């Protein structure tokens, strides 16, 4: 019996902490087989983003076409895309191959942890117009949610919920906004789906600056969706919000958050940079450390 198969369409990040490298490690840690289509190349370290290079749109499209036509994909995760042209190419590929891509999770990456923009303003606009209507789960952080909507940053859980509902109205079956920017002892993520709203709380861990948590969270959700109960590998997808899928989704998101928390906790003593400091990676090897 083959494992669940997940495609990531994301940036290659040279230090391996985020992007498709984090995605592929997450898939493996959670028992899924990972395939990839590279959208852009970033020269990045724990301390800074040196440069970003979105790939030609036709090259990105060729990769997706090849994988979708050959592999039995159970879920797809989309991350940083870099340019409006690449967003348009990915949206076109999704529309053509929708039945072959399984459930789709979009992590609308716009700015790196270092504060460097990872997509043009035109690209960010194209994300909202072209990709949001095509995906099952959207996983922005608070800043990304505000930018997609053209609104100020939320300042309360209720405002996060309102923005999640506004994003859901643009097409995604469910929206998870991570609330790490709100002050407080707990981090509260807001999950909006057809069955209602769930507030997911976790104790804030201020000990170390981590990069790749968003990539890992969305990848973990995609990996878990690939094995969702009742999933038809032939490609006949039930809608999120139907036939108990919401209960499955809440469980999946909670499980993905636990994986991220454990991977963060178990990387606290890692120092991979020769210079020390900076943004460290998560420990995606936790499922192997037994």
TrEMBL record:
Entry keyword set: Kinase, Thiamine biosynthesis, Transferase
Catalysed reaction, written as an equation: 4-amino-2-methyl-5-(phosphooxymethyl)pyrimidine + ATP = 4-amino-2-methyl-5-(diphosphooxymethyl)pyrimidine + ADP; 4-amino-5-hydroxymethyl-2-methylpyrimidine + ATP = 4-amino-2-methyl-5-(phosphooxymethyl)pyrimidine + ADP + H(+)
A Pfam family: Phos_pyr_kin
Organism in which the protein naturally occurs: Brachybacterium vulturis
Encoding gene (name): thiD
InterPro entries: HMP/HMP-P_kinase_dom, PM/HMP-P_kinase-1, Ribokinase-like
GO biological processes: thiamine biosynthetic process; thiamine diphosphate biosynthetic process
One GO CC term, this protein: cytosol
This protein's name: Bifunctional hydroxymethylpyrimidine kinase/phosphomethylpyrimidine kinase
